[in-house]
Amino acid sequence: MNYIILDLEWNQSPTGKGTENKEIPFEIIEIGAVKLDEDRNKISEFSELIKPQIYHEIHYKTEEIIHIKMEDLKNKETFPKVIKHFFDWCGDDYIFCTWGAMDLTEMQRNMKYFQVKELRDRPIKYYDIQKIFALIYDNAEITRTLEYAIDYINISKKESFHRALNDANYAALIFKQMDIDIAQKNYSLDYFYNPKRKEDEIKLVYENYSKEISTEFNSKELALQDKDVRSTVCYKCGKRATKKIRWFSSSAKVYYCLAYCKEHGYIVGKIRIKKTIDGKSFAVKTLKIVSEEEANLIKFKQEELRVKRRKKRNNKRLQEIKKRNNA
């Protein structure tokens, strides 16, 4: 099996947030990739610019970062043709590797918009080199740039960053130096196409945490009512952990809880509510065994949110009283 180290550059609405096409907020204008064999030796490269069909001006920030002008793109081929060239180049037996979690999602979003046949109708396994770099070399809680990683490993910077092929080559150099066993144990899933049925739900157990991706629901509320979504089963022993703090929201899309396993200690749960491409909801739940100190942070987070909400309610009441007195 080959490794396809993929990097994309994209444009967005030149007039800013709120004016974008909701179906395709980011339009891909460059694809760069490096193909490695199973021993991570370089086989070949892919690089093509793409003629835009949605946004006909380059957003000023995009131009500042990637140094691509509209004149560079106007005589290139369109996305459907370029993506076909790309998949012909990929071959049949490969796994994607990317720096970060956005590239596969945006590639599939562009494919859907331009009515290109989907890669798969379910989540796609891939290696997130950025995540694996953090696990091996750095702090797993901090998101690092590609240039930071290149400097950290002391790789020579011969080419500029923020062009697709250059970034793919840099990511490939980092990937070649990684312990492949650690990479394989910490693969990621892109869920642009989420599980559609209960029997297709995904449950993954990594060394330090577990992840579950639910089926889809008609609303966020129904997702949060599902007993499997809300459950806290210890991923080490398979026994149900006792809730110490029930699920509470820190935002409209993120929920936390704290549970306790008699054998393995405190477990922090986190649910992120995601939207499907057709407007439904599904849940991505992670469970992680933590120290007592980390467990106390969840208790503090809950209390802090309670105080903020209480203060907000009190301020609202005061405003209402003032309005009535001034009437």
From TrEMBL:
This entry's Gene Ontology molecular function terms read: 3'-5'-RNA exonuclease activity; nucleic acid binding
Q: Which residues form the Exonuclease domain?
A: 2-184
**Keyword Isomerase set for record:** no
4Fe-4S listed as a keyword: no
InterPro entries according to UniProt: 3-5_Exoribonuclease, ERI-1_3'hExo-like, Ribonucl_H, RNaseH-like_sf, RNaseH_sf
- UniProtKB keywords: Exonuclease, Hydrolase, Nuclease
Q: What is this protein called?
A: Exonuclease domain-containing protein
Q: Which organism is it from?
A: Anaeromicropila herbilytica
